[in-house]
Design goal:
Elements (H helix, E strand, L loop, with lengths): L1 H6 L6 E5 L2 E4 H17 L7 E5 L4 H12 L3 E4 L6 H11 L3 E4 L13 E4 L23 E6 L9 E5 H16 L5 E4 L8 H11 L2 E4 L2 H4 L2 H10 L4 E2 L3 H7 L1
Parallel strand pairs: 1-10, 3-4, 3-5, 5-6, 9-10, 9-11
Antiparallel strand pairs: 1-2, 7-8
């Protein structure tokens, strides 16, 4: 709802850029609303986990917002993780639906799970483009993120909306994000510092620039991206900063 309010009156501003593709706020709002309606048809509801397994792309962002607008909690699955680890997280979370792409069909083979493939032609285009009438309250789940697990098995940690919003608005205040900023997102969704990279700019009316993994792990490519895309904000781990230096 907060991002929808930001999109109102800001529909022609660029919300996300990935490579040579981009979406304006109005386009992102329409596509994520349509996905949300489709997910509700498939059983999305409050605190229902919906898995998301996609390469870094504009569709990945559409998937995230669509799941949240349907009232569900997203479960991020990095497609670069070992398949057995991903299948364990799918089974452990008991997600009834996965938002993904055609290259990941093998991941869900044999599992009792419904799939929405965002890279297939018009999977949700005939759904309403309005925000679903879903009430989201502070204590419901926003996402379930899996840690490495001290026992050797990943553990799902459930995070509520109130915690996410508290964190994001703190960061919008200090160090601060404005509509003129362009934030370079380099972190996998399976690491929770990605929350700031994805949702912080959208709440501020700024632009998220999604860096492909090949760029995020290459210091020279990353430096070129920072300059070429006029990046004003980036957050990263110490290892990434050392690589960049």
């Amino acid at each position: 709802t907060l991002i929808t309010k930001r999109a109102t009156g800001n529909s022609d501003a660029i919300a996300v850029i990935c490579g040579d593709q981009q979406l304006k706020y109005g386009q992102l709002e329409t596509r994520s609303n349509q996905l949300a309606h489709r997910l509700i048809e498939l059983g999305a509801d409050r605190d229902v986990p919906i898995a998301l397994c996609m390469e870094r792309s504009i569709d990945m962002l559409v998937g995230l917002l669509g799941i949240l607008k349907a009232g569900s909690a997203y479960v991020p699955l990095d497609p670069d993780f070992p398949p057995e680890r991903l299948r364990y997280m799918l089974e452990d979370s008991a997600a009834p639906v996965i938002v993904t792409q055609s290259s990941q069909t093998g991941l869900i083979e044999g599992l009792d799970i419904q799939a929405v493939y965002l890279d297939q032609p018009d999977p949700v285009s005939n759904r309403p483009d309005t925000l679903p009438a879903v009430d989201v309250v502070p204590d419901q789940l926003a996402y379930i993120i899996y840690t490495s697990g001290s026992t050797g098995k990943p553990k799902g940690v459930a995070i509520e909306h109130r915690a996410v919003i508290n964190f994001l608005f703190s960061m919008l205040r200090e160090p601060g994000i404005t509509r003129s900023d362009r934030l370079l997102a380099v972190t996998t969704l399976s690491f929770d510092i990605s929350i700031l990279e994805i949702f912080g700019p959208l709440l501020a009316g700024a632009t998220t620039v999604l860096a492909p993994k090949t760029v995020a792990i290459d210091g020279y490519a990353l430096a070129h991206c920072l300059e070429h895309d006029d990046i004003t904000i980036m957050q990263a781990t110490p290892a990434t900063w050392r690589m960049l230096l």
